[in-house]
What does this fold into?
Amino acid sequence: MKDPQEMERRLAGDVVRIGGAEYAGALPADRHVFLVGNLQQPTTYPFIRDERVEVVLVSYRAGDDGRYHWHPDVTEYELVVEGEIGYFEVASGVSHWFGAGDFVAIPAGACVKRLVRAPARGVTVKVPSSGTKIHCDRCSRDCRWRAAPFVP
It folds into this structure.
């Protein structure tokens, strides 16, 4: 992994390119390849720094389910490119499944858990770029789906 500043490309008035070969090696080992965002973690591929938005290529194998979580200020949009990606929505107790070509919006504050039962790929856009994610152990909400005790 390289330091984010080494891999960072900034918008400075000119067109910025990241060639497919520059990040292709990260997939599918990295389930999430952040091409745009205010990244704080090291990457093996270049990215464009932008605090306004994150653009993420996602590549999942069966069983790559996420953890229950929500973002206080981030809305997520996802285009499923291949396969099927599901989200269990805590508020309704319903699992929603999305196939290739489907577009998904998860509003800020909505608690969900990603579900993957077969290989899938997609493109996710998060507005704004923020690493703030609340999991069960940091969530004070009263929830019947709690997977870990709240630790104040």
About this structure: The helical segments are 4-7, 20-23. DSSP finds two helices and twelve strands in the chain. The longest helix spans residues 4-7. The domain at 4-10+19-138 is CATH 2.60.120.10 (Jelly Rolls).
